[in-house]
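Chapter summary example.
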Amino acid sequence: MIPLESPPAVSGNLVDVLGGRIFPAQVDVAAGRIVKITELNEPQANFLLPGFVDSHVHIESSMLVPTEFARAAVIHGTVATVSDPHEIANVLGCQGVEYMLDNAAQTPLKFYFGAPSCVPATDFEHAGDRITADQVATLLDDSRIRYLSEMMNFPGVLAGDPQVMSKLQAARERGKPVDGHAPGLRGDEARRYIAAGITTDHECVSYEEAAEKIGHGANILIREGSAARNFDALIPLVDEHPDRCMFCSDDKHPDELLTGHIDVLVRRAVEQGTDLFHALRAACVNPVKHYGLKVGLLRPGDAADFLVVDNLERLQVLRTMIDGQVVAEHGETRLAPVEVPIVNRFAAAPRTADEFVVPIQPGRLNTIRAIDGQLITQREQIEPREIAGRAMADPARDLLKITVVNRYDSAPPAVGFIRGFGLSTGAIASSVAHDSHNIVAVGASDAELAAAVNLVVAAGGGLAVVADNLRKVLPLPIAGLMSAKPCAQVGRDYEQLDAQVKQLGTSLRAPFMTLSFMALLVIPELKLSDQGLFDGLAFRPVPLFDPEA
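The structure predicted for these 549 residues follows.
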């Protein structure tokens, strides 16, 4: 690994985002800070920008530990992230948060973590641990914890639930922002939710919803991840409300992290006609100001966190600097890998095909409809395919079985039906299943479901695909969520697995990412937990068969 360098001065055409001008300059750096900026008389070859910040990301969804995420992200100009560790917290509780903090401390990239507000996300599923209101307050007392992570329990906020309100009060007393999570919430309910102290929302899927929430006082995080893609719908807001928008990925798989991060969103924004300075406010300035991050903005006295790019159209990152050190240059990371300890909580036992049998009952099936590029689903009522008194998968109608298996205890699996995955044969399974991270699987037959689940069980967590003679698994031994391997290797293994799934007939852009959200009960409309089907709009369980349909 190339040793980190700390050049005393860097020259280029400086993009002063706060001042709204561009001028040739020399930036003098000492002890990790910008000590002087001198305007030059001659235009320079390259451009200097503040570093990019991902304003909301779950590092665990990259399947990488923070140090490995950093090694990949700095190549694309990322200097900081606002990171919610509730994925690992749902598995390991506060121990998981501490794991992320400890690992992140070993890299120059500036990870700013929040205190998970909803562990577990609901009481309608089994998670690996629980974080109480008192524990949330203790986490918020830690100077490394910058904010209260997304408050997914918006019904609890609206109902004034004492535990929920206690967490909001703890953040308010400590002067720390509260992230929101209110998919589809509109009107007076959205106003009341935001008025309770919620400062952001990253779940908007339409311009109208986001504009309304801005009107109620929220900042909008424009999300473009590996599954949820809301950029095109929301990008007009950046010019209309340049101080109220930020860019985020939320969930980013390793193959896509290899090719780009927040830099891609800035480039797309500019290509679509967004004002450059407004786009850079969303990518660089607004997250720093909103969360009070110790990240420089290319001003004298600031930390020397900035980029050298080739021009303002391609925005190709030539060099990334954090605290005056060159952490990436010409597409290569300069950050060294670190040793990673393995932590996990995994008690699931192997399953048999008989455990996924669904006896026929009167009525139609309440069926999940997955939507490509969205976390939300639709609820459909489908006539079952019956064979010998059993409700069976019917790939010809794109009607597959879905199961969620409790990985923390031995319990019967929950089984439902789903459309939208398009598998003609085979099955896929994953221990990345937001938010409780049980095992979720979709398959064309009971035997294939069992085989895919058992591959994940044998690995102690991971992603698996099964079809005919194919048995392939990507192990994720750290909490069943992350690998200790480098991004390039994990990304390559994931790409191979993804390609194998697509050969089974799915047209989903990111089938494993979509699969991971089919157990996320707090995102409407219909999802499946290890306890059964759940209506995210009514916020209650629903039966598999509807006799009145």
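To summarize the output: The chain has two domains: 52-297, 353-546.
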